[in-house]
User: What shape does this take?
Amino acid sequence: MLFLAPLFLLGALAIGLPVAFHLIRRTSREVTLFSSLMFLKATPPRVTRRSRLENIWLLLLRCLAIVLLALGFARPLIQRESASTQPLQPAGKRAVVLIDTSASMTREDLWQQAQAKVDDVFAHAASGDELALIAFDRTSRTLLSFEEWRQIPPGVRDSAAASRLKTTRPTWASTELGHALENAAALLDGQHSEQPKSREIILVSDLQEGSRLGSLQGFNWPRGIEVTLAPVRAKRSGGASIQWLTDADASEPTTADSESRLRVINLADSTSDRFTLQWAGEAGIQLQVPPGQSRIVHAPKPSDLAAATGEIDLIGEGAMFERLYVVTPKPTHIPVLFLGNETAENPKQSLYYLARAFQDTRRQRVELIAHSDGQPPSEMELRGAQLLVIGDETSEPAIAAARKFALGGKIVLLPMTSESSEQALSRLLESPALSAAEAASKDYAMLSQIDFAHPIFAAFADPRFSDFTKIHFWNYRQLDTAKIPGAKILAHFDTGDAAVVQVPIGKGSVVVFTSSWRPADSQLALSSKFVPLLYALLDLSSDAQPRPAQYFVGDDVAMSASPLPHKVRRPHGKETEVASGAKFTGTDEPGVYLITPENERFVVNSDPEEGKTAPMEPSRLASLGVPLHSAAAPPPTPREQMRARAGEQESRQKLWRWLIVFALGVLLAETLLAAKLSSATPVPEPQP
Assistant: This one.
């Protein structure tokens, strides 16, 4: 028998106390009544040779209780013979080694440092350890799984891991550190074995500030998993990077000398503030960006404006990711059809304002195709158009074409100007009972009860833009929406009549303005709400979304629908065939890509976050709940392993509980016996 806390056995020496108490306790057998003893000197009983033990069973019970309590607190265990003779085998650990392969790891010798750290982890793995190797950047890739580790002989596991690592190189992708940690934790939590093992994630990375950790918000870490940081560090700190602001350029008009807007970012620990921005092989412009600040500049004009597509270099001390690829975006062609007997030169008609509402930008070119001769649009025009507007005095064939257009899934816009508009709406909806009489004359009407949750009015939901009271409507028609199945009123006049109504037709719909934007009818065309309203209708109806001019490494590029498959040529000339409507997934390097047969170009750049190369503070990970391992603990000694094994056996046996129960039982018996003995002592009756 062994004891985990043998010092508590010294408590058994306390059995001398009850023996001593029994020896010094003298109970007189005769009781003699005496007067007051206040004038006599007290004499305590003495232990003499004539003293002898009394109430032996009571003494034995008290001594037994003390011995049982001492044994219980000493935590005894009965060690099995097989467990004591067999050599102790280490339980080992189960660990996932995460190695960073993002773009920031291409700096200096960071990758060589990371390889050395991973090789050291596998070289010092114990026989009972289980290791897996996972590389991560924007996605995670398993280089060596737990199953493969178990199948490899122990003597060659480190060399097998080293050979797998040699086939991997840093990419140009971003650092999705949060997803990598989540995947590693899930992998460890899903592994089970008969022998319990410690679980650990070993992170080998430069831990730069640009690492994405958003997915760790609210992540519930499995219990018992720790993260050990094995950072690699660059010799040179600080630096600058550039970013193409494509969103800022999207609304700019397309001109021959359009300039792209760039952001130059200089890190706080940078040692330089002067840089040169230039097209590859040409003279550039000088700029100054203090450390810790950024500056937005226009790209320098190349000597050949047609060559404003390619590489822009940031030259200067400490510049990182200094090469940026820029392309002049090809605007998306968006046709809009107008059917009606109107001209674009007459300011009293709707077409005049419609033709001036859509402006060409660097991202899209809206072409207004007007059919004023009463002839319907061709089949090709109907397929390519993204929005159709019906004007005054539209012919029967044109109305039939508009209905076909709406049935195909697009939007037909009908501003009501006269009785001919009422007839056009009746034929368009195939509702002969429809009525839309002219409203009674009044000074003017205003819009109210607008559905700002609808996509048409969503752009005006902000209180700064939701005021429509400055737009006056002189004339409008009272549309009886109760007779139109599925009609949805999007806005009312302050009189309660419907102002904007949407009616579904097939896959598309008809949007009816019960008044028009002609100056004789309203002030809508002269207000700041007119152009955003038309663009909202166009966006809701159009499926020809402009292709982004810039992608980041790892982004998918959607191909447009066409009868023929597409071919995408990469920066180094390799072509990949992509089916119509599918996605191109080969954006694995920065550069200029070409899509044929459209002859459309787009660029792929590294994520701007990769330029934030300052080391991340570990406290940032800890604040997100990552269980960091403070320091590497030394391996347990054989004595510590023996004590751990004994503690495990003792926790299963729990003999101390039975000893405490027996001790309580003995104390109960001692109490009953003492009460019986005290009640058996005769008490003399007082004499007069």
Q: What stands out?
A: Residues 355 and 386 are 15 Å apart (CA to CA). The first helix runs from residue 16 to 24.
